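Q: I'm writing up a methods section and want to include an example of the input and output format. Could you take the sequence below and give the corresponding predicted structure tokens, formatted cleanly so I can copy it straight into the document?
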Amino acid sequence: MSTPSQEDYLEAIWVLTEQKGYARVTDLAERLAISPASASKMVRRLHEAGLLTYERYRGFAFTPEGQKQGRLLYARHQILERFLTHLAIGSASDVHRIVEGIEHHFDVLRLDQIERLVTYIDSHPHWWRQFLDDSTA
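A: Here is the clean output for your methods example:
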């Protein structure tokens, strides 16, 4: 089981890899607004946990399990952002900040119901607008 900090790293590595095709310690440090030394230390921990392959001075990459976890963590983040955006609880930066605060309390494997609701809302925007209008009346 990953810690919230490890989850943040795995999610960030997933995003960087999707955007650039690779991730480096410096990219990771910049994305998470931390020192390269801290990023390097966590990369070594994730290597020891079997989630990354790491060679000093050569970089790192996901293991199959690390890639699976990174993908699920990113999906969890996206589902929660979509859900909170539908609730219209604030600006995009507000939603992002809130998701960062709550995402670790949601098991990535148990988000099915929220994902189904978000997909339904996406497919039935009229229904959702009516729901929001009724709830504010």
